[in-house]
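debug: dumping io for the single-chain case to check the tokenizer round-trip. Nothing else runs in this session.
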Amino acid sequence: MTDNRFINRSELIGILVLAAFLVVVLPLCLDVFRLNLVAKYLTYAFVALGLVICWGYAGILSLGQGVFFGLGGYCMAMFLKLEASSVENTKIQSTPGIPDFMDWNQITSLPFFWKPFHSLTFAVAAIVLVPGIFALIIGAAMFKRRVGGTYFAIITQAVAAILTILIVGQQGYTGGINGMTDLRTLKGWDIRPDHAKIILYFFEVGCLFVCIFVAQFVRRSKLGRILVAMREKEDRVRFSGYSVANFKIFAFCLAAVFAAIGGAMFALQVGFMSPSFVGIVPSIEMVIYTAVGGRLSILGAVYGTLLVNFAKTSLSESFPELWLFGLGGLFIAVVLAFPNGLAGIWSDHVQPRIDRLIASRKPGWTVAAIDNSVVDGAPAE
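debug: decoded output
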């Protein structure tokens, strides 16, 4: 029997536990520096959430999500950079009032496509619309021609490589390999002090939960069931009269918007944006986050992102020459031993033991009754 509830008991408990962990436990246990690291990790969780819908449910493996993460980050960075490049702050330049990297490259006036980014409203709209429209163009070009699977994954990698080369090559307009640095204020509010970092952390957590609920709505709706059916039997869905291409485009665009929001939060939290977060390597790392957490689990994607990035930071501090091998080994181990990631470990090994323990202590309860409230939240296979 299909449960049409937006959220069931086990999912609600999982969301509350994650909220308590992010909102209460981490801020109380970590200093500002470590909490800011967690905030940086959580920016990647937006990408992982999008991949749960795009890859886990729709079956579309994108190896170029760094493109959308970068587009969102650059849209926010352009606004912040213009605010930091006031005439007063840049009076030592040969051309005051423009970003420093433009002055270094002998550009004497602000390019026309930079001028709208003086407006925060325009910048916020661009964070959503620019990556969304770009994903729409790519998706329509590919899915309408029934390009998918490995071919689509390779094409997204190529797009990531092209955009990286473009950003580096257009140094006078993008900051080149160094990116956009020295991002100081947001509408006059200094984002660099510790108290500002803490406020931005809680704002980011709030945005993350909004995206979690959007993903949960898609997952539990009829649309989510169609995505799962499309992943399993694409031809059968097509023969049933649904436009498979349009559903794929939607899932890809939603993942792109989630990634762009994460990129914008990254620019705010870290204070810079560079092409090193746009290319093939970061895009593949983002897929690893989702795989480790569980590509069918919304909450698992968040935990997987935190775990992989914590391991990455720890290994890079202790073994700077070997951490990439460790990261690759972690991915291989998860794929071979636990194909459903952390969420699979929980549902296959931990949850059944908890259910049996509850059933043994409550005579009126049975494991089957408890399982019904849990399995309803699991995706159709």
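debug: round-trip ok. Residues 9-339 form one domain.
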